[in-house]
Amino acid sequence: MYPYGHRPSLIRELLPGRVWSVEQLHGVWYVAVPIRMTVLKVNGGLLLYSPVAPTAEVVAELRRLEVAHGPVSTIVLATASGLEHKVAVPAMARAFAKATVWVCEGQWSFPLRLPSAWLGFPSDRTKVLFRDGLPHADQLAWIGLGPLDLGLGNFVEVACLDRSSGCLLVTDALVSFTATVPAIFELDPTPLLFHARNGGADPLIDTEANRIKGWKRILLFANFFRPAAVSVPKLGEILGQMYGDQCNNPRSHFGFYPFRWSEDWESDADDLIRGADESFGISLAPVLERLVFVRAQEPLLEWLRKLGQYNEITSLVSAHYDAPKQLKATQLIAIADRFEQRSWAPSQGSWQTLASIDQTLIRLGLVGAVDSSHR
């Protein structure tokens, strides 16, 4: 997973003395998007929501926060299916050996269903949200979505509202797509510049226009896997580009660039961003919409409307993409209404690869078929 053994982090204070964000990049082969841990000040210490990799840099920063605000007392994994969020929890729990680990119900592994202790979760200090109580319930509201039985496993997500700050924390269920390049790429813009090119022989040129171009293409790859605007050139053409003057560079993978973008590729990225903008800057990730939520529209809408009852909400902090995003409770109800009225999870255009994956999972009996009335 990119960025391999080196994971620089962007650490920001979102609300003075109350909420912090720790961001890293993760992805495959330069298709890198932000993944975020949120740190909350709670009574007696700190809570970590959706842990990221506990690198030496991250642990050192958390130790500094501990000096001012008390120990890391609570670590929360609020999803049952997001591998990129699960994988960091055992290591974070080892780094803060006195913290209680809270997980949502319905945890599962694939292809073998293994006990959580075998996956590194400390059995003596791991609790299940709702079943074993709720951490810091006097300060935080916990609002669960699911479990949604998908056949292969459960989808579960638990949102956390910090009542005093108004920050609503979510993991994957809601995201915010923007054309603004995430600030973490200031640490290393290479993924942006790699994808901004039109061929393997093109150099990596760092301009603002290329950063935006690369980010929009990453958005398409990350959300659709194989966007409709991308085709794969013949092997001879790919190899022929690897002998240019600019190809002796590991940052550009020595000229290996197996993509050809159509002239109108940017309209697909703009449509993805525009869809979020039409819902107050909030959207569903296409991969979740096509593979998960199309099978559970009613629970999702009910969850959104339940969130909309918390008038304290002032902003959304998701574990991916742009955050924080200004948000009001009434807007969540309006978003639910809009989602209910629009068509869901198409199978055409850039959605074709997701549709193909869905049909394969159905054919293998790993997930159930989708009622066409829900499309």
Structure description:
With 375 residues, the protein is an alpha/beta fold. The chain folds into 2 domains: 10-176 and 282-338, Metallo-beta-lactamase, Chain A (4-Layer Sandwich); 187-273, no CATH class. It contains 11 helices and 14 strands. The protein has helices at 56-69, 83-86, 89-95, 190-195, 208-224, 235-240, 265-277, 286-291, 297-307, 329-341, 352-363, and strands at residues 10-15, 19-28, 31-42, 45-49, 72-77, 100-103, 126-128, 140-149, 154-162, 167-170, 230-231, 260-261, 315-318, 325-326. Strands 1-2-3-4-5-6-7 form a 7-stranded mixed β-sheet, with helices on both faces. It has a 5-stranded mixed β-sheet with strand order 8-9-10-13-14, with helices on one face. Strands 11-12 form a two-stranded antiparallel sheet. A hairpin with a 4-residue loop joins strand 9 (154-162) and strand 10 (167-170). Helix 5 packs across helix 7 and helix 9 packs antiparallel against helix 10. The radius of gyration is 21 Å and the shape is globular. It starts with 9 loop residues before the first strand and ends in a 12-residue tail after the last helix. The relative contact order is 0.12. The mean pLDDT is 89.
